[in-house]
Specification:
CATH topology: Maf protein
Distance between the termini: 6 Å
Number of helices: 5
Strand content: 15-25%
Number of domains: 1
Largest sheet: 8 strands, mixed
Order of helices and strands: EHEHEEHEEEEHH
CATH architecture: Alpha-Beta Complex
Structural class: alpha+beta
Number of strands: 8
């Protein structure tokens, strides 16, 4: 595979993960900012999959409108991901990035979720990270894949790796949070890693 992937995100931590996970793909991987694309995208879908498609199509439309030969065959990808906690009826879910406000530090968001689970025993603190990846091909075809990792919500933040809700997401089989895993370990088991590898497989069938 050759060409360019433009990812509809400005999140530096997410881009680092994406480049690491797709490190063996023979394509240039750019953020939308690096590709010079600005888009105010309204994520009004009812699921991770719908929001990922909304973001990918919005950036693909912007790209098509610019008619730049350099990106004429580019694949536009987007992800929508978040944390779903069973004891909180699936919250924060698709609102994970906007929980308590988009500009609120994740340390505050994490403490809030831990406080809301006060008194909830281990066996009922089940949760999962979910990631949907959407890809809009130059042909206009849209592909969607999903990855999930199951775990529990811890009682305090632990670990300095990762970002977002990683410090409170406990993975029982590893005995630590995803923020305590090495980057290589996390990418191997993470929801985003699983979704991206599934997408890479789908692209391999078409390109």
């Amino acid at each position: 595979m050759k060409g360019t992937i433009i990812f509809a995100t400005g999140n530096a931590g997410k881009m680092r993960e994406i480049r690491e996970i797709l490190g063996d793909i023979d394509m240039e991987i750019l953020s939308m900012k690096e590709a010079g694309i600005e888009a105010d995208i309204v994520e009004d879908g009812a699921s991770f999959e719908e929001n990922a498609v909304i973001k990918a199509r919005a950036v693909a439309d912007k790209l098509a409108g610019r008619r730049e030969p350099a990106y004429a065959e580019a694949i536009v990808m987007a992800d929508d991901s978040g944390l779903a906690i069973d004891a909180l009826n699936g919250e924060p879910g698709i609102y994970s990035a906007r929980y308590l406000g988009e500009d609120t530090p994740y340390s505050v968001k994490n403490r809030s979720l831990i406080a809301r689970l006060a008194g909830v025993p281990d066996e009922k603190r089940t949760a999962r990270f979910v990631c949907a990846i959407a890809a809009v091909l130059a042909t206009g075809e849209t592909l969607v894949t999903q990855g999930v990792i199951e775990g529990r919500i811890g009682y305090e933040e632990k670990g300095g790796n990762g970002f977002g809700y990683d410090p409170i997401f406990w993975v029982p089989e590893y005995g630590c949070t995803t923020a305590q895993l090495s980057e290589e370990e996390k990418n191997r088991i993470s929801h985003r890693g699983r979704a991206l590898r599934a997408m890479k497989e789908e692209l391999g069938k078409r390109i």
